[in-house]
Specification:
Pseudouridine synthase
Length: about 270
Amino acid sequence: MAGERLDRAIPELAPAISRTRARKLIEGGAVFVDQVRVRVCSRGVRPGQTVTCYELVLPPALAPRVVHDAADLLVVDKPAGMATEPTRSGAAGALTEWLRTAHPGALTTHRLDAPTSGLVLLARSAEAQAELHRMLQGHDIKRGYVAVVAPAPSWDSQTLDAALDGRDAVTHAKVLRRAAGGRAALLELALETGRTRQIRRHLAGAGVPVVGDSARHAEARVAAQPGPRLMLHAWTLTLTWRGQAVSLSAPPPEDFEAALGPLGLAK
């Protein structure tokens, strides 16, 4: 099979997958060769390579809202349920796929987990992307979040600084609203660092996990309370860009606000 096209090799390796289905999997971004996504059906295979096919998942069509679009900086409000970048189950529905047609050439600078809604910074050039990366690493971009946790914490404000994955991680948390009996609380959070699932892991480790968090975090002291969605939203971004102060906000979406009432946190 050396040199065989990928879309022909897959049915040979896995007879249950037809060539037509193989092409759909490849074009949809659900096929990896040696752990690298390949989306070209005619790509040749070599002896010793590993070909992995995942089930292609087609999520519901979602579209972000543009919050800021000026020069080489683009900021969008991503809906919950939309992945920032393609997952192993394909590229369909990811923010980067939406950008390919709505804003060609736009580049991601940081990610939000698929179930998290809110503001995402994008660059319109590789130079701008590199500059935003430097600013994020230098803590020159302020990122604010709101989250609902259950139970409510015993503190009114706290700095969570437990290391994550062997690296420093700092999250500042403040209680905005408490439900009767301390069964839940609405928190405002600010990040100093950007580790993987930092807010979710820090809060789970503090014994006040985010409502609707279905992930199993090694740091978790108690299981998260189920919810209609992950109750985490990135709502503010503040930075100085090209000499101009940029301060942006996106209020929590309707599904987030609707979930506050049953949790005893409605205004």
